[in-house]
Amino acid sequence: MAHRFLVKDIAVQAGLGTATVDRVLNGRGGVRHQTMRRVEHAIRELEEQEHSISSTGRKFIVDFVIEAPDSFGRALKEAIAAELPLMEPVNFRSRTDIRLLFTETEIQRVLERIHKRGSHGVIVMAPDTAAINRQVERLTQAGIPVIAIATDLPRSDRIGYVGLDNRRAGQTAAYLMRQWLPADNPHVVVTVRNNRFRGEEEREAGFRAHMRQLFAAPVFTELVEGARSDDPIGPQVLRVLSEAPDIVAIYSIGGSNRQILRAMDQLGWHPRVFVAHDFDSENRAFLESGRIHVVLDHDLRQDVRQACQMIMAHHRVITLRDAPEQSPLRALFPPMMPGYGGQTGQKSKVTP
């Protein structure tokens, strides 16, 4: 396997011993396929980061363990690549394990592996479960700080949270819907990707509570895509829209908006208002075409920056005078987009 990095650097990046990495690089047997993939992934990460990491100064390795939709994962990687080279006075190198789906056992294994190999800090997006919280406690006890990103782990020993106030984000979605919908009792579909995540739970709770303040008796239909679900969100939306013609709006908390819009196209149905989260490349296109009416977003770069600052403060490299602020929420509308066609809700089809 061709490479231009020291074996010890690849070993640190992969979280493996130098002897194991040497066996992989020289094509000797007795190495599992999964281990080979870890070495390959480590080399790719080193290649991506080599031009942004200084050869001098103190170096920190930070681990990202993230379960998120592909679009969010791509946006987070872009934020990591943009922010880490700017951090001072420490040179940060990242190790990332970003997946569409994790089982609880898989997350535990990844965190256990980090516990064994060491890290300067872990930034995690994971369900708020007892087993994962116990693993966070073990990392903390070993001197490895853990920061939750996007969805909090408040019952754990994590040293902090970076991201939105998710309950207020849900309240904002309800407020915006009130501007579009008549003052009767609207029937709204709420789609959740994974109800194991506290962040999505908080968004939905804030949304429902504020809708009940703004409307006399709103009706909610919750659809959960779920991890490893045999019932993806698209068919669920298709089924519900077919059975409930009084639905007037959609609040997409968990993403999968391409599937949702494809189901809408099959029925030729268009909501009075469609509110979604995260200004990624896919949602940008849907916003420009007017298919989504508003996207709620925040600055992932700020989240990465604050998480790294918390790690440096934990290791007493810097002093933080104030606690990190939660990311400010912004609402984006179709006319704000350069490619906006001027017709909100225009009926362009969603390609597979």
What features would you describe in this structure?
With 352 residues, the protein is α/β, with parallel strands linked by helices. It has three domains: 1-51, lambda repressor-like DNA-binding domains (434 Repressor (Amino-terminal Domain), Orthogonal Bundle); 57-163 and 299-321, Rossmann fold; 166-297 and 331-336, Rossmann fold (3-Layer(aba) Sandwich), CATH 3.40.50. It is 43% helix and 17% strand. It has helices spanning 7-14, 18-25, 33-49, 70-83, 104-117, 130-141, 166-180, 198-214, 233-243, 257-267, 281-288, 300-314; strands at residues 59-67, 91-99, 121-125, 146-149, 160-162, 187-192, 219-224, 247-252, 273-277, 294-297, 330-332. Helix 10 (257-267) links the parallel strand 8 (247-252) and strand 9 (273-277). Helix 4 (70-83) packs across helix 12. It starts with 6 loop residues before the first helix and ends in a 20-residue tail after the last strand. The mean pLDDT is 85.
